[in-house]
Amino acid sequence: MSAEPELIELRELAPAGRAGQGRTRLERANALRIARGTACNPARQLVPGRGHRFQPAGPATHTWCDLCGDFIWGVVRKGLQCAHCKFTCHYRCRALVCLDCCGPRDLGWEPAVERDTNVDEPVEWETPDLSQAEIEQKIKEYNAQINSNLFMSLNKDGSYTGFIKVQLKLVRPVSVPSSKKPPSLQDARRGPGRGTSVRRRTSFYLPKDAVKHLHVLSRTRAREVIEALLRKFLVVDDPRKFALFERAERHGQVYLRKLLDDEQPLRLRLLAGPSDKALSFVLKENDSGEVNWDAFSMPELHNFLRILQREEEEHLRQILQKYSYCRQKIQEALHACPLG
């Protein structure tokens, strides 16, 4: 097996627009369409996924459905999540899940020492502003320390290019276009959402040790890195389902910090040096419980308000019904009691 890393070129990126715009509406199933006359064929019928133990998702669950790809929104009914493999979906999508449960996934984390700096006491992360001369000196020092050909290089316009390594630590499955034939090289370059519209999707679990090297510019943002990784794997899930983390080992503890969308990973790589212990990048599910509402379009936000109103009305109806039933029983008991 070749030891050469697989590289993803990110030097020519189109300006990033509002997330979610221009994305093709995906069919809410990885099931087959049953045409007339084929319903009796058992090979063409939907086979439910085996081994899942779905239970209501927690109140802090703000994520995207692993089946249909739509955002799971609500206050009371937050969707369902498998207790074993963490497959997360809408209540309405439960009957359409075809992917078998893979069981608990051991992704090699160090739970005894790992700390998430988004929720624990903050750690001082040094991100000083460097002059052009300091950047040039840093690049020379960086290149002198590495033992491979993954060098950084300074450009005439003052920017610089280099390589970052991203480890994929995804617990939940990802979705790709469902097709009878494998994608061509042109399809892979176009990526999902371009060319022909995606009509169906199927899910699978990425290998737990998947690692990709990316060739990026100093101004490449974390959100663009995520989008490039998804295009590489032909993943059609919403990029907002994922987050890029930086991982550092300090004083016997492992610290994780979720990068902001506009942070520049190559700049962090240059400041930290080439050591993976000092800094490495990890792609994980964006399950922090926080929602960046500014990233949604106006139609999406209006739809969330309508869903919220319907859920509130249903919840109030159920509460009033319970109180009415209790009141009725008390009144029946009062009428049944003899006077005096």
UniProtKB/TrEMBL annotation:
Region (Disordered) location: 175-199
GO BP, sorted A to Z: Ras protein signal transduction
Keywords linked to the UniProt accession: Acetylation, Cell cycle, Cytoplasm, Cytoskeleton, Metal-binding, Microtubule, Nucleus, Phosphoprotein, Zinc, Zinc-finger
Record's subcellular location: Cytoplasm, Cytoskeleton, Microtubule organizing center, Centrosome; Cytoplasm, Cytoskeleton, Spindle pole; Nucleus
Residues of the Ras-associating domain: 194-288
SUPFAM superfamilies: Cysteine-rich domain (SSF57889), Ubiquitin-like (SSF54236)
Alphabetical list of Pfam families matching this protein: C1_1, Nore1-SARAH, RA
Chief localization: cytoplasm
Domain SARAH: 290-337
Limits of the Phorbol-ester/DAG-type domain: 51-101
GO cellular component, one term: nucleus
Biased composition annotated in UniProt, kind: Low complexity: 175-185
GO MF, one example: zinc ion binding
Protein name, entry field: Ras association domain-containing protein 1
Species of origin: Mandrillus leucophaeus
